[in-house]
Specification:
The complex is a heterodimer of chains A (346) and B (343).
Chain A lengths: L1 H13 L3 H10 L1 H19 L6 H26 L7 H17 L4 H24 L5 H20 L4 E2 L19 H19 L1 H11 L1 H6 L4 H27 L1 E2 L7 H11 L11 H20 L4 H39 L1
Antiparallel strand pairs in A: 1-2
Helix pairs in contact in A: 3-13, 4-8, 4-9, 4-11, 4-12, 4-13, 5-6, 5-7, 5-11, 6-7, 6-11, 8-9, 12-13
Chain B lengths: L1 H9 L2 H31 L6 H9 L2 H15 L7 H18 L5 H25 L4 H20 L11 H8 L1 E2 L2 E2 H19 L1 H11 L1 H6 L4 H27 L10 H11 L11 H20 L7 H34 L1
Antiparallel strand pairs in B: 1-2
The chains are: A mainly alpha (346), B mainly alpha (343).
């Protein structure tokens, strides 16, 4: 398996003629996603001529902003070969603490500061248990998924926090006269930052190295534990930030805010071509994945398909995201075999 | 568990110590359960009443049945996230059968639930085992697909208690010789699967696959077939769990069983089944489910606000994982010392 992929990547580097580069980009998962995005946009347009307008764009951004923000640090964590299932619980915890403190007459800015601190602490707890105690991340974050949601329940109980100051309303509207939702704009800025860090810095290369061969990365001097811990802290921070945005957008918060969203966040990252085994995936892929799912959701909602039934589409796309690359791999191996046989016969 | 296999044959005192440490895992959960029960009982005498104990024992039955199936899958170093959705779909479809055929015998209903789950398990297993793609992604996809199919089937119409025949509801609430029916079914499953897991070769293969997949292939284990089997059983038990869920609550909406996958995995992990496969028993998983439910009920009986339940469960889960890590590190070190002594 390993030698096979090394062979393939060497072949990638060697061939530089433009046609093979185009072919490679199309064969890559991200290429397929771009085509799927185009198809879903055309489909939406044929269903309703009103589909492609700014309003659809605004609502799609509003719906997916927080999930997309949480998907960015998760992408990096999955590339290192770990996982974080506690993201949505952290969002709920942050929203609950914000609501609780505001109801107890705290200054809103101070309350937001506390939320972000809680996010950092929660992320650090995940990270320390994974890196220092050496526990499997899937078990740890299923534990903290329950724990953080449980703390949110203790904090807010069955209450709903409402009545946030007027200026927070703007988070459910577009920025100025544009059609860009605030949370989606923040996602775009963060995506650029994450993209630059992952694809253009030594830190980014280290993250891939950890995911491909953790031992080799360690012996070549990469601070594996420190980087993983850092990623979990960033994840906690951004999830609590997403919780604040979500609260303002909904103008209310409860202990079940964002319940079950962790699966959507994981689905976005995996659908974006991030390998669950680590070492593979791009921020571009995740962005296209967000756009594709948002456009599919908008077009399906346009023809009155309920949100629950839409989950069939999400599920099928997830299955495709692992089955298609596997199928291509088989095809490639089959072709390689027949080429070798032909060479032998000649 | 491979450790255990070595141990039984060689009988030195160190080996026996390792065995005992490993067996201690399940004993510790049982002791913790009894401790929680006793402390709560001293605090609130009605906690020890027979009605309360029946509730304590029948409450986690459905989770236990799902945990048995999940254990088989986790032991092979895979995971099944779709069980909550399978439970929901099976519960609704069995309910729907009762709406159309009110005179359907109870056994037929249970078998129907089992078969519905089996179909889902076959799809999961075929994709994971034969296409060799990660189980986490496949079963997450199936979680969505099955939930979506459920939503189409339900179409906004709930199953009401009046539509479920009395004989079937009795199964959910009734007792035989003071033992709840649900618990009897769960115990039969645990003992049956637990016995098979300890004594039959195909089941031992599951542990071999989870301990070291490459070595299992080299040892001639038919890895895809065994993994397929584990998923089929997990799906079938989730389907059976769905039918029992209907018997217990007598009402089903399209959201039934949402989030159940994490409850079940929590019980399995608390029960000492290693999340990376190769060790753990269905008895442990069942005890894990019993412990988590007992704590839930104890918090209620101690008049602690029920809002605390989930946080306590999460904390316990982390403690259990850390404890498991400590034990396995100790066992490994003991084995290494023994190996060094032999030279």
């Amino acid at each position: 398996m390993v030698s096979h992929s090394v062979e393939a990547s060497l072949r990638d580097i060697e061939s530089t003629n433009p046609w093979s580069m185009v072919k490679r980009a199309l064969v890559r998962w991200e290429g397929g996603l771009v085509i799927l995005l185009a198809v879903s946009l055309i489909y939406g347009w044929t269903v309703s001529p009103y589909f492609i307008n700014w309003e659809t764009f605004f609502f799609a951004g509003l719906n997916f902003g927080e999930i997309a923000i949480m998907a960015l640090p998760l992408t990096l964590i999955i590339i290192t070969g770990e996982i974080d299932l506690s993201v949505a619980s952290m969002l709920g915890l942050s929203a609950s603490i914000l609501g609780y403190l505001y109801m107890h007459h705290w200054n809103l800015w101070a309350a937001m500061g506390i939320c972000l601190l809680v996010g950092v602490a929660g992320g650090a707890l995940n990270g320390l248990l994974v890196t220092r105690v050496g526990l499997p991340s899937i078990a740890v974050t299923i534990g903290t998924l329950t724990l953080y949601r449980g703390i949110a329940l203790i904090v807010l109980g069955s209450n709903t926090a409402e009545g946030f100051p007027g200026w927070t309303n703007r988070f459910s509207a577009a920025i100025g006269s544009t059609h860009l939702a605030y949370d989606f704009a923040i996602f775009l800025v963060l995506a650029i930052i994450f993209g630059v860090v992952l694809h253009m810095t030594p830190l980014g290369r280290s993250i891939y190295a950890i995911g491909l061969q953790q031992e080799a990365a360690y012996f070549s001097g990469i601070r594996v534990k420190r980087i993983k811990l850092g990623l979990y802290v960033v994840s906690g921070l951004l999830c609590s930030f997403a919780g604040i945005l979500y609260t303002f957008q909904q103008a209310s918060s409860a202990s079940d805010t964002g319940l079950g969203l962790e699966l959507n966040v994981v689905a976005i990252a995996l659908f974006g071509g991030v390998s669950i085994f680590g070492g593979r995936g791009t921020i571009f892929g995740v962005c296209i994945s967000v756009a594709t799912l948002a456009s599919l959701q908008a077009s399906l909602t346009g023809i009155n398909v309920s949100a629950q039934v839409q989950s069939i589409v999400t599920g099928c796309l997830l299955l495709l995201s692992v089955l298609v690359p596997r199928g291509l791999e088989y095809l490639g191996r089959f072709r390689g075999q027949s080429q070798r046989r032909m060479a032998k016969e000649l | 568990m491979t450790v255990l296999g070595v141990v039984v044959r060689q009988e030195s005192w160190r080996d026996r110590f390792v065995t005992r440490v490993l067996q201690f895992r399940e004993l510790a959960i049982a002791v913790a359960t009894v401790l929680v029960f006793t402390l709560t009982w001293l605090n609130n005498s009605s906690f020890g009443s027979s009605a309360s104990i029946q509730q304590l024992l029948s409450g986690p039955s459905v989770v236990i049945i799902l945990a048995v199936g999940e254990t088989l899958v986790i032991v092979t170093r895979n995971v099944d996230l779709s069980i909550g959705s399978i439970l929901g779909l099976s519960a609704y479809l069995v309910g729907d059968l009762f709406v159309h055929y009110p005179t359907m015998p109870v056994v037929v209903a249970l078998v129907a639930g089992l078969l519905i789950g089996m179909v889902c398990g076959i799809v999961n297993g075929a994709i994971v085992a034969y296409a060799r793609v990660p189980a986490l992604v496949v079963t997450l996809g199936m979680l969505y697909i099955i939930r979506g199919i459920d939503a189409i089937v339900v179409n906004g119409i709930q199953i009401e208690p009046s539509q479920i025949p009395h004989s079937f509801v009795t199964l959910g609430a009734g007792v035989v010789l003071g033992v709840p029916y649900l618990l009897v079914i769960a115990l039969v499953m645990v003992v049956l699967v637990g016995y098979v897991m300890q004594n039959y070769r195909p089941a031992r293969d599951l542990y071999a696959i989870g301990s070291n997949p490459e070595a299992a292939v080299l040892a001639g284990v038919r890895v895809p077939r065994r993994i397929f089997g584990a998923f089929v059983i997990s799906g079938s038990l989730a389907g059976l769990g769905g039918a029992l869920w209907l018997a217990e609550f007598a009402t089903v909406a399209s959201t039934a069983g949402t989030g159940y996958e994490f409850v079940v995995i929590a019980a399995v992990v608390v029960g000492g089944v290693a999340i990376f496969g190769g060790s753990g028993t269905v008895f442990g998983a069942a005890l894990g489910a019993l412990l988590l439910n007992t704590i839930d009920q104890a918090l209620v009986a101690s008049r602690v606000s029920s809002f605390w339940n989930q946080a306590v469960a999460g904390f316990l889960l982390l403690v259990a994982i850390a404890f498991d890590r400590y034990i396995s590190a100790r066992a490994e070190r003991l084995l290494r010392i023994r190996g060094a002594a032999r030279g």
